[in-house]
């Protein structure tokens, strides 16, 4: 029986902590009936009843929007669409990395081609052959 009381006490504490976090992180326009400080005091002095009261009467629900976000099948407008959390979730960031990588690869490839042409010309000069016409840079 004592374990049940401990379990219920822990559940009450967890509920009160969740209610406090919810109350303290709510925007000013989402709190109804009482000011924020009154809700915090109610939750602290009456953890079980205060927490339940906060979740039932203290939070304002945005009409037409469930607690989990947008309704299924509805596309959020741009201003409501959540931003990616990490850079690797952002398609624009990934696209910029790909473009930068492609540009760097092309630049490296051109440098390798120029180096290869220069080395071929050096070998031809050493062997006494003139450099090929198509390999000479245009002036």
Uncertain residue segments? none
Task: Give the helix level as a range of percent.
Answer: 55-70%
Q: N-to-C terminal Cα separation, in Å? A: 96 Å
The overall strand count is 0
Give me the secondary-structure category.
mainly alpha
The run of helices and strands is HHHH
- What kind of sheet is the major sheet? none
Question: Which geometry do the CA atoms define?
Answer: rod-shaped
How many domain modules?
Answer: 2
Strand residues, percent: under 5%
Written description of the protein model:
This protein has 139 residues and is an all-alpha fold. The protein folds into two domains: 1-61, no CATH class; 86-131. Helices cover 60% and strands 0% of the residues. It has helices at residues 2-25, 36-45, 47-58, 91-127. Helix 2 (36-45) runs antiparallel to helix 3. The radius of gyration is 34 Å and the shape is rod-shaped. The mean pLDDT is 82.
């Amino acid at each position: 029986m004592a374990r049940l009381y401990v379990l219920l006490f822990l559940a009450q504490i967890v509920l009160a902590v969740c209610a406090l976090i919810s109350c303290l992180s709510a925007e000013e326009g989402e709190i109804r009936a009482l000011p924020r400080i009154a809700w915090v005091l109610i939750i602290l002095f009456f953890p079980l009843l205060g927490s339940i009261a906060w979740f039932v009467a203290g939070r304002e629900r945005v009409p037409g929007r469930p607690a989990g976000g947008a309704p299924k099948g509805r596309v959020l407008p741009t201003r409501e669409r959540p931003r990616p959390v990490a850079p690797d979730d952002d398609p624009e960031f990934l696209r910029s990395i790909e473009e930068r990588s492609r540009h760097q690869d092309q630049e490296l490839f051109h440098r390798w081609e120029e180096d290869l042409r220069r080395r071929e010309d050096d070998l031809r000069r050493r062997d006494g052959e003139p450099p090929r016409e198509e390999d000479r840079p245009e002036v």
